[in-house]
Amino acid sequence: MKTIRLIFTILLTVLVVTSCKTKQKVAEIPAGANVVAAPTVPEAPAEVKTPTQTYSEPEVTRNENFSLADGESSDALKYKYHVVVGSFSKTTNAKGLQSTLKSEGNNAIVVVNENGMYRVLIASYNEYAQARAKINQIKDRFPDAWVLVKR
């Protein structure tokens, strides 16, 4: 048994030593030889493909029938897209947010839908892209802002 272990250990050592040696031969350059580097070939620039079509973001909106809440007057309803930053079942909560937004210089208005929900609109636009841009601008403060379209 000791002999088999000894032979196995020797074979294992031989395998490890021979497998660690490099198999590639290194060319020796004599001292004083004139060595010239091989010219490098510049890489061809990667082909850049430009899209042939412009893809626009799909409109994500909620369509509702709504009107100005009591005491509101605004030209905002002549626009198609409205950015909603708050939705409340009580008018006092909606008016509170509106008051805060107005004190910050926004032209916020309150509308009410057919289900009695009060929506606080911070801005209104004719273009969906403008409404999305406004949402992106205020997303840190109003992460749940969304676009409302009058049905």
Report a brief summary of the structure.
By secondary structure, the protein is an alpha+beta fold.
Write the layout of secondary structure elements.
Elements: H1 2-20, E1 62-64, E2 66-68, E3 81-88, H2 91-103, E4 109-113, E5 118-125, H3 128-138, E6 146-150
Parallel strand pairs: 1-6
Antiparallel strand pairs: 2-4, 3-5, 3-6, 4-5
Q: Which structural class matches the secondary elements?
A: alpha+beta
CATH fold-level label of the domain at 62-150:
Alpha-Beta Plaits
CATH level 1 name of the domain at 62-150: Alpha Beta
Number of helices: 3
CATH superfamily of the domain at 62-150: Sporulation related repeat
| CATH architectural group of the domain at 62-150 | 2-Layer Sandwich
Order of helices and strands: HEEEHEEHE
β-sheet strand percentage: 15-25%
Given as residue ranges, the uncertain stretches (5+ residues, pLDDT < 50) are 50-55
What is the mean pLDDT? Answer: 83
Identify the overall geometry. elongated
Oligomer: single chain
Radius of gyration, CA atoms, in whole angstroms: 37 Å
User: Could you tell me how far the N terminus lies from the C terminus, measured between alpha carbons in angstroms?
Assistant: 92 Å
Number of strands: 6
Can you describe what's shown?
- The protein is 28% helix and 21% strand.
- By secondary structure, the chain is α+β, with helices and mostly antiparallel strands.
- The chain has a domain at 62-150: Sporulation related repeat (Alpha-Beta Plaits), CATH 3.30.70.
- A six-stranded mixed beta sheet has the order 1-6-3-5-4-2.
